[in-house]
Amino acid sequence: MTKKNDILQAATHLLAVKGYKDASVAELARITAVAQGTIFYHYKNKEELFLAILIAFQEDIVAEFTRYRNEHHFASGLQMVEDVIAFYLHMVAQMEDRFMLLHRHDAYELARVNPTCHDCLESIYDCLIDIFEQAIVTGQSDGSIRKVPARRMAMIIFTMVDGLVRFHNYKLYDAGVLYEDVVLSCRTILQNNLPSDQELKDDNKGVAVS
């Protein structure tokens, strides 16, 4: 591992634990046992370092899911969704610091004033939601998943799963207890024996709201 990668890895942990505002380059230099000048040689300021972490995070997510998809066979799109949930939680365990950093509020405070940061965060979430959307589209093609707007449903499922991640990261609740319930809930709202959104809308036409 190069010195630049050492700095990036240590910075990821420091920013995840302390947040963007409270983490300092001086502390990073102490942790990595390098001069601050060496850090500034690779990254001109803390903001550029933070953005480098986000960009690397997105690249690793894409690489990991591409590898996973190429190495696994899915019996159906619905099974793919369920497997993707498990794989997503596996990625969280492997990239715990980066997911913790992603969930910190100060990252979004920076995104309000820094368009590059905003675009990086948006790209990461788009990438994560894309993973679920691809599985849903596959299921709609093979008939295992009902006809619903794939992107919207992917966002709903991602929100449920990401809620478990937040429980895990902040040690608020044993997220593992809810895993089977989340999978069952996803299966229930996706499986093809339920009416489509359009059928539900048609059924509700003319129903008076009291």
Labels describing this entry:
single chain; 210 residues; mainly alpha; Tetracycline Repressor, domain 2; 11 helices
Layout of helices and strands:
Blueprint: H1 3-22, H2 25-32, H3 36-42, H4 46-71, H5 77-94, H6 96-102, H7 105-113, H8 115-142, H9 150-169, H10 179-190, H11 197-204
Helix pairs in contact: 1-2, 1-4, 1-6, 4-8, 5-8, 5-10, 7-8, 8-9
Estimate what percentage of residues fall within beta strands.
under 5%
Outline type: elongated
The top level CATH class name of the domain at 50-194 = Mainly Alpha
CATH homologous superfamily designation of the domain at 50-194: Tetracycline Repressor, domain 2
CATH architecture of the domain at 50-194: Orthogonal Bundle
Total strands: the figure is 0
By CATH, the topology of the domain at 50-194 is Tetracycline Repressor, domain 2
Discrete helix count:
11
Radius of gyration: 20 Å
Q: Give the N-to-C terminal Cα separation.
A: 66 Å
Into which percent range does the helicity of residues fall? Answer: over 70%
- Computed structural class: mainly alpha
